[in-house]
Amino acid sequence: MREWWNHDPSPAAIENDFGAAIDRSEAGEDWIAELDGRPIGLTQYCRFVDYPDYLDEMAPVYPVGDGVASIDYLVGVPDMIGRGIGSEMIAAFVEFTWMHDPTTTSIVVPVNSANVRSWRALLGAGFRLVARGELDPDNPTHERMHEVLRIDRPLAGS
Questions:
Q1: Which of 47, 67, 84, 120 could form a disulfide with 105 if both were Cys (CB 3.0 to 4.6 A apart)?
Q2: Domain for residue 93, yes or no?
Q3: Distance separating the N- and C-terminal Cα atoms of the chain
Q4: What's the total number of domains in the chain?
Q5: CATH classification at residue 50
Q6: Residue-level pLDDT, tens digit, the chain, 158 residues
Q7: CA-CA distances (angstroms) from residue 151 to 14, 21, 61, 76, 101?
């Protein structure tokens, strides 16, 4: 997990990285995933239009606009990794998103191409590959190539 998230785990860094979302002073949202009452992961949600720099960065690879959100996620408990729980967590969060934010028409997620486990979890949750291209990696030691995956809100009555 640390390789892909590249976050400093110190209390000050956690406050800096997540405090604004927790305090609701920024548009992004952070959600804790639980399994049988045990915290096992994290999902982050944002609409691209609320983050103009992110919107601009995506434009050459896969343009997104109004109604398009993105998520980031992790399963942070080692014995839960590699068991399909990531795909289940993502699928559940997608369903939650459709209810939580009726303005979201689709979710687009860029994932570093080398993070095969992550983009396969998205495929397992029903996303489809829509583009490949270079984006700034979360971890500066990684290559720039990313897979871009998308899932659309089901049509009413589907």
A1: 67
A2: yes
A3: 35
A4: 1
A5: 3.40.630.30
A6: 554 455 566 777 666 666 666 667 677 788 888 888 988 888 999 999 999 999 999 999 999 988 999 999 887 666 767 777 889 989 999 999 999 999 999 999 999 999 998 899 999 999 999 999 999 988 888 899 999 999 999 987 65
A7: 30, 24, 17, 24, 15
